[in-house]
Design brief:
The chain is of the alpha/beta class. The chain is built from 12 helices and 8 strands. The chain has a single domain, classed as TIM Barrel (Alpha-Beta Barrel), CATH 3.20.20. It is 46% helix and 13% strand. An 8-stranded parallel beta barrel has the order 1-2-3-4-5-6-7-8, surrounded by 4 helices. Helix 7 links the parallel strand 6 and strand 7. It is globular. The termini are far apart. This is 4-hydroxy-tetrahydrodipicolinate synthase. It is an enzyme of class 4 (lyase).
Length: 292
Amino acid sequence: MITGSIVALITPMLDNGKVDWDALDRLIDFHIENGTDSIVAVGTTGESATLDVKEHCLVIKHVVNRVAGRLPVIAGTGANSTAEAIELTETARQSGADACLLVTPYYNKPTQEGLFQHHKAISDAVDIPQILYNVPGRTACDMLPETVARIAELKNIVGIKEATGDIERAKQVIDLVGDKIAVYSGDDPTAYQLILAGGHGNISVTANVLPKQMSDLCKLALEGKAEEAKALNEEMMAVHSAMFVESNPIPVKWALADMGLVGLGIRLPLTVLQEQYRTQVHDALKALGAVS
């Protein structure tokens, strides 16, 4: 079972929008050196919505090859077409990914029965550990706790990223699934609370820029050290907030550029962070020593 700090890795890009493979290698090494426990390749933060299928698959394979077994790689393979999700998940399996992260189908608003049948089809089709991903604020589709419990009975389902930020909701999911699947936070400000409530880790945006601190935070929470985890989280709150001054991954990509790790490349319809927010992001990073 994957536990701890799981970075939702950005996909670095050149100014012309092409994937920056050298920068991707630097980021992977940066995370391994700083205690990140696992990497998600091509999730929401990795601009899965703007990479084409070929690029999507190439990035997953590249990350798997660069990591070379040093930590688990989770491939983002969700789609609002079940057939496409199966195709991406099978490609990730063939590429050697350790697990897949499958966001709820966005835009087409499936019913709860539709969500069950969607995940059943993927779990039946591809023999790889699969993590559900519920983020209704982005998908307009909310996988209810009772549906999570039902899907948890399927083969290959090993976890859920619960990104509502609602701790009571997360506790309800944890109570329903018990030890059947792992529950991960998808909300940085409340991640330590979810872990203390019985969660297994955090799939994180903030970890892109503060990998060591997020790793330490998750370890403290997993060890039940509530007060220490709370204190560290409070130190990180300004960065948590800064990562969402505009839509993710706009701020985190600019932050990593400010840190000198990547360029400013991002794909339309996303744009580079607006000038009015840059001081806030820079100052939050500077307070924790991420930039000078």
